[in-house]
Amino acid sequence: METEAAGSVFGIQELYRPADKASIDIVAVHGLNGDAIATWTAGEKSKVCWLNDPLLLPKYLPYARVLSWGYNANVTSLKEKTTTSADRVLQHAHTLVAQLQADRELEDATETPIIFLCHCLGGIIVKRALAYSASRTSSKLAHLHSIYTCTFAILFFGTPHGGFNKAHLLGNLQKFASMTIPKKVLQTESSLLAALEEESETLQNITDQFAPLMSHFHIFFFWEQERTDLKYTKDYIVDETSAAPILDGTERSGIAADHRGMCRFQSSSSQGFRTVVAALQRYDREASEAVKKRTTRSTAALNNQRLYEAMDLIEGLQDSSTINFHPDQIRNTQDWHGSISAFLAHSRELAGSSAPSQLYN
To answer: The pTM is what?
Structure first.
C-alpha cells in the first residue's frame, strides 16, 4: 500500500532510453495508492529511483528501454486535491494495453520483447491486461495481440494472487487513513480493495483467465519478509502464500523489506536488487530469439484464422448465391489473400450489403 499518489502523472513514462536500439522494454506497474516514479524510489532525501539511476538498472542492462506506467490507483484521497479511482481492474487493464501499444508503435518497437515489473495491485492489472491482449485476435484488434506475444517475463513484487487473507487488514488500512486525515476531507473508494479480497469473484476470474497463459512467460514471485508499520500495529500486507504461490516452472524469493520497501533499492549491494537484476539479465539474454519465433508463429496463426473465417463466410454465402469459389481452391493457392479479396468484391456485387465490405484491415 503506497501513500504518495497526490502528484502522480498517468500514462507511459520513459525513464531510460539506450543510445542504440533497445533489446527489451522493461515496464514497471505500481500498486495501490502508488506512483509511476515514487513507488520505485528509495530514500527520503537522496531519492534514488533504481529504474533510471545510472549506477543501478541502466548499468546492468544498458540496452533496455525502461518505462513506468502510471494510473489512478488511489483508494484514499484528499477531497478537492486528489480523486480516488473510479475505474476497476478491467478498465485499468484495457488502458494499459492501449497506451503501451501506442507507445511501442510510435517508437517502432512493436516486436521488442517486454518484461513487466509489478508491485501489489499492478500485478493483478498486468495479468488481466495480458489475458485481454491474448484474446484480441480479430482483424481490427490484432495489433493489441502483440503485447501478449512479446511479453517474455513478469516479476511480481508483493502481488496478492490469492487476495488479502486477513479481512481485518483491509479495515486497518482504511482506518489508518481515516485516523491521520480528517474524515471531512477524506474520500475513500473501496472497489479496487474489494477486488483484492480473498475469494473475491474478480480475483478468481483473473486467475482463471491467466492460468492457461502462464507457461508462455518466465515468472518470478517476490514476497515481503518484514511487517509494515501501520502505526498501531505491524503486519504483512501480503503474506508469502498469496504473494508467491508454489507453481511448477516459476521462481520465488523473499525480499528483506516491508511491502512498501520491497521494490525500492538504494544501492547495487542490496540483495534484493542483485536477485532482481540477475533475473533481468538472464531474461534479456533469452528474450530476443524467443520473441522473434513467437511473433512469426503468431502472425501465421492470425493469418490462418483470417483464412478460416473467410472460408466459413464463403460456405455460408454459397447456399444463397452463384459464387464459384470453393474453400479447397483457396486453401491450395499461395495467393489466398488475393483470392479472398476477389471473392469479397464479387460477393458484394451479387449480395449487395449482405457481404462485409472488408475482411482484412
So the answer is: 0.81
